[in-house]
Amino acid sequence: MTEVAQTEVTGEFHLSAGDFRQISAIMHAETGVLLDESKNNLVYSRLAKRLRLLRLKNFSEYCAFIESEDGAGERDAMIAALTTNVTRFFRESHHFEHLKKTILPPLIEQAKQGGKIRFWSAACSSGQEPYSMALTVLSLLPDAAKYDVKILATDIDPNMLAFGEAGIYDAALMADIPAELGRRWFAPAKDQPGFFAAGEELRRLVTFRKLNLIGDWPMQGKFHAIFCRNVVIYFDDPTKTKIWDRMVRVMDAKAALYIGHSERLGGKAEQLLRSDGITTYRHKSSMTVPA
Q: Which residues are annotated as catalytic?
């Protein structure tokens, strides 16, 4: 594969600068993801297999197809192919420690009195993040399934959602799960040597749903914790600000917002929230200001 110009790539298929701009514009309009010119090789490598599958000759034909009425389904496939899905169990472990030690204890007492616990994994990928949240709950409340505890796991990629709903992971992916939690809440997957399946009590805490962060949010009520990590880094600044501001509006007064290590708050969220640890934020009104 030879790089011809900054946004032009040639090889098995030709990706012109115009094709790249068209694909980038669709991604931005549909998902908020901003693909700059440095991503031309990524676009080529991830979409070349789509062209082979569709038996198209070049990216110009592909762009014409995804813009057509018959190409609506392929637009979704393109978005899924270009969405970055990097995750692992208990990634950025300090967030789960904060959840366990600061957010959960009072919520558990409320749940035992008939209250509810609501968490949101806002870019759940293949499910390791929401299952890590659920495992954190179970570490303190082993019978959580009998209380009103719900974790919403959303993502734009239906393939990742299906992976998460299946809840079956290679043993290598389980390495970051504390051994005791892994033994208790996972079991060897049937007919899949070397794989483990999330148990029913773990799975019952998590609900997977498709959601586009720049689209409508149909959820009602407030969340006690929101994990939105390593996703807004792909958005432009106005979109980032809008997402953070919307997050604040669906946070309970004492909720925590966990974001990625390279992300920064902006807009009203920056004014209303205060740091409560590494990339961890809570409403200023919920925290005691040091003397």
A: 46, 155
